[in-house]
Amino acid sequence: MSYLIRPNTKPVLLGGGQDLLRWIDSGGPVDRHLALQRLRQGWAAFWFERHAEITARQCTTITLPTKMVFIVGLWRSGSTVLHRLLTDATGWATPRTWQCFRPADFLLAPAPRPRQESRPMDEGVVGTFTPQEDEFAALLIGEKSLYRAFIDPRRLDELTDLLYQWKSLDPAAPPLSGRWEIFLKAVSQGTPGPLLLKSPNHTFRLPWLASRFPEAQFVWLTRPKKDVLPSNWRMWSAMIQRYGLWQAEARFLERFIENAIKSHDEIFESAQATLSERIHVVTYDEVMGADSSVVSRLLDELDGRPVNGSAPSCSPPGLPVV
Known about the structure:
By secondary structure, the chain is of the alpha/beta class. The chain has one domain (18-309): 3-Layer(aba) Sandwich (Rossmann fold). The chain is 43% helix and 8% strand. The protein is built from 13 helices and six strands. The chain has helices spanning 18-25, 37-58, 79-90, 97-100, 135-141, 148-151, 156-159, 178-188, 206-212, 225-243, 250-274, 284-288, 294-302, and strands at residues 68-73, 116-118, 125-127, 195-198, 217-222, 279-283. The strands form two sheets. The chain has a four-stranded parallel sheet, sandwiched between helices. It has a two-stranded antiparallel ribbon with strand order 2-3. A hairpin with a 6-residue loop joins β2 and β3. The protein is globular.
């Protein structure tokens, strides 16, 4: 029987709010024991909520930009590279790594010193101030995120329902709460232009996002299944190895990725039929091409205007996405 986590390794603890802590606690005793694990996460959750209250008060007068650009599509389709290219080319507001991992208090303290580290799943580098997907902030805030599986991969089947939430989204029970929007306000304050957001997880919330933000546009990354499937396996396995508190059988992940690809293909077909004027399709090869003009093309389609005279960059950063 194949398992997802190598024995005798220690996870990195994620410190979020009370909602995430309650979800973790509902899983019972952890498999990968760390000294004072529950106490440390409980203490982090206490201060997370106190800081979140202060941040919410500071953001009451901030209005979200009416124009937003969402980068969506399956994981491992080149979205990280495109996120950086568009950010560099436009200067648009976008979440940074340190903000996404400190969503409750990044407004309340000076920015940390810049540092870099390798990504768990490949040879790419993540920096303190590099563009980051807001899904990590959503996870820590307590939203129902697929990234909860990083912490407890035993519940991958339970989380699979989120892959199909787009089929039956209830306006009275939105998939993301006002707390997520407070984070976006904090990120966007004082920065002109659209708000640029990247998260493959938003793909499965797309009908709600399109309704909630009627001026939003969506850049959709595509990549052949034969390439995206093994790349997803590596990504999810690496992130579970890094953050998982429980062991799980590999077959759970295999089933989850197959469901993700199936749901992605279905919603892609639906979105092209119902939201074609707001969908801008980009292939993985276009993004990773050394002489790519995809940024210039997208700015034309999005009617984008660089901030402070920034010029589009057409050379992808050194981020292997395989």
